[in-house]
Design a protein that fits this description.
Chain lengths: ~100, ~400
């Protein structure tokens, strides 16, 4: 869910339910790596609510698009981590034999 | 701008070199005192400096970016610099592009057994490494006993304590073969039923171990309370606490592969004549709900330690240094003429106890303890449901799913 102004879509807060530091911190890392982002941060408003707010301010692009790209980047990174890991495990098992 | 950048650099450099003890002075004073003596007149000292190559960080900043330095009192430069424009004024791009990430990321498996593994993840940000760790502990699903139907329990262990103990027993079954039950009726796709019926005669061993939990592939045998009261007038099968449509051992995945729990776990002790009769229903869940569903005993990482000798440490000092380290990081080599020199033999074993830099400034000058910020020694200890390498890939998939869900929500 996006909270922002109607006129300016370059600054928004996104509220994700059922997420915590696991995703928010990883997404913040990914957002910070994006040169279009001027500010990004996240907060968990209350520890008993399982939701997290991610704030994004950009140099001109739509905040929603930037967040989408950040998630996309994160997914690609994960896929690369997974394939590299699987390959390392296979190599290790071969060398053990 | 460029001039300012260079000036700041020298200030921090000289602060590093000479001003370790003048921390009590105010910032401006220590800065001016470290800059003025060098130049003498005006800013002429600036001209003597070598150029900072564009596109590359000066060595001390690069060190701060990639290492945590551990001093006797506290570690330095502990934060990771994530912002892409952090070094923009130096002409350095700090963003991680996918291709550079793919080029630099490496995994090296160090140890891999049935239920335990250690591997090195190199070239990844702590944000991601920590996400994997958190997911391993609290979001990779397993099966665990959730409902216990107790028909008889005359042991000294109370029903609720017994149920709790049963819940914590690891079940050696691949949770990917099952569905989350949610509010659905228990069926062969989401529930595993175990039976436990023990009664001790005098002179028999009194321990009840987890081996006595027997998988019951046809589901629950206890009749629903409402069915009990009804007389046997209906010809249909009486309803039990589960509604299995077929026997679980007729399913291909379990036909040659009986479901077992981890063996030799003490459940209760019985006195002569005491009895326990119960049915335990295991369902799929995640560690966030209750730790019994956590698939790992522990999942943890540490950054790769680096131990560097800043000076030659010889003779008695070398012996002292070797004796100081409780994990044996240092070794002594013979350099001839009866002289000895300390070497760093096993830096990976360093636990950062900092024993070697305790004992005065001279030790801090000799040894430098560091940690690499992007090199993680990752450990996974599985409880037995899935092998550790599968657990890790599952954890990475879960993070991918999370991202996918956010993308789907936004579009």
């Amino acid at each position: 869910m996006e909270h922002g102004s109607f006129s300016d879509h370059t600054k928004s807060t996104f509220s994700l339910t059922d997420e915590d530091h696991t995703l928010a911190n990883a997404v913040r890392f990914s957002l910070n790596q994006d040169p279009r982002v001027t500010f990004s941060g996240y907060s968990i408003p209350h520890p008993s609510d399982n939701k997290v707010n991610i704030r994004i301010q950009t140099t001109g692009d739509l905040a929603a698009d930037v967040l989408k790209d950040a998630c996309q980047d994160l997914m690609l990174m994960c896929q690369h981590v997974r394939s590299t890991f699987d390959k390392a495990v296979v190599d290790f098992k071969m060398s053990e034999r | 701008m460029a001039g300012r950048g260079v000036k700041q650099q020298t200030m921090s450099e000289s602060t590093l070199e000479t001003e370790t003890e003048t921390e009590t002075e105010t910032g401006t004073e220590s800065e001016s005192s470290s800059v003025d003596p060098k130049g003498g007149g005006g800013l002429r000292w600036l001209e003597k400096l070598s150029d900072v190559p564009m596109g590359k960080l000066p060595p001390h900043l690069e060190f701060q970016r990639t290492h945590v330095e551990c001093k006797a009192d506290a570690p330095l430069h502990t934060d990771t610099i994530q912002y892409s424009g952090a070094y923009a004024s130096l002409g350095v791009d700090n963003s991680v592009r996918m291709d550079s990430f793919c080029d630099n990321f490496r995994v090296e498996v160090m140890r891999l057994t049935e239920d335990d593994m250690e591997f090195d993840m190199i070239g990844i940000d702590p944000a991601l490494a920590n996400a994997f760790r958190r997911i391993l502990i609290s979001e990779v699903p397993t099966m665990a006993i959730e409902r216990v139907l107790i028909a008889n329990n005359t042991s000294v262990v109370q029903d609720e304590v017994l149920a709790h103990r049963l819940g914590l027993i690891p079940i050696n079954v691949d949770p990917r073969l099952f569905e989350f039950a949610g509010n659905n009726t228990p069926n062969e796709k989401n529930t595993i039923v175990f039976k436990l019926h023990v009664r001790r005669k005098p002179n028999e061993p009194s321990s009840v171990k987890s081996n006595e939990l027997i998988w019951s592939p046809k589901g629950s045998e206890f009749l629903l309370a409402s069915e009990d009261s009804k007389s046997a007038d209906t010809s249909s099968k009486p309803r039990t606490y589960t509604s299995f449509t077929c026997r679980q051992d007729s399913l291909p995945e379990f036909s040659n592969n009986a479901i077992k729990v981890m063996e030799n776990i003490l459940i209760a002790k019985l006195g002569p004549g005491q009895e326990i009769e119960l049915e335990a229903h295991a369902v799929k869940g995640i560690g966030k709900t209750h730790a019994k569903w956590s698939p790992v005993a522990t999942a943890w990482y540490r950054m790769l330690p680096e131990v560097v000798l800043l000076q030659e440490v010889e003779d008695e000092a070398a012996e002292e240094l070797k004796a100081k380290c409780p994990v044996g990081v240092f070794d002594i080599e013979d350099i001839g003429k009866g002289r000895k020199r300390a070497t760093v033999a096993r830096p990976r074993g360093c636990t950062l106890c900092r024993e070697c830099i305790r004992g005065g400034q001279q030790w801090e000058d000799r040894v430098s303890l560091r940690r690499r910020k992007n090199h993680f020694i990752f450990n996974i200890e599985s409880t037995g449901a899935l092998p550790p390498e599968v657990l890790f890939t599952e954890a990475v998939k879960i993070l991918e799913d999370k991202c996918e869900r956010v993308i789907a929500d936004l579009s």
